[in-house]
Amino acid sequence: xxxxxxxxxxxxxxxxxxxxxxxxxxxxxxxxxxxxxxxxxxxxxxxxxxxxxxxxxxxxxxxxxxxxxxxxxxx
Length: 75
Hints:
This protein has helices at 16-27, 43-54; strands at residues 5-9, 33-38, 57-64, 67-73.
C-alpha cells in the first residue's frame, strides 16, 4: 500500500505506537495516508479502535513475520 508518510514504531510497546500515530496525524493533511511500522502485535486491535475513536480511516494491517504495518488515512 502506498503511504504519504511512514512512522517507525519498531520496538515500541503499547500505547506508544498509538501515541506516536496521534502526534504524526496532527502534522498531516486530510486524505494523506500514514504507514505505521510496529513490532507490537497489539496494533492489530489498537489501531482500528483508535481510528474509530478519532474518526480517521483504518485501511488495514499487513503482517510480515513479527513486523506489522498499519495504514491510516487522515480524515
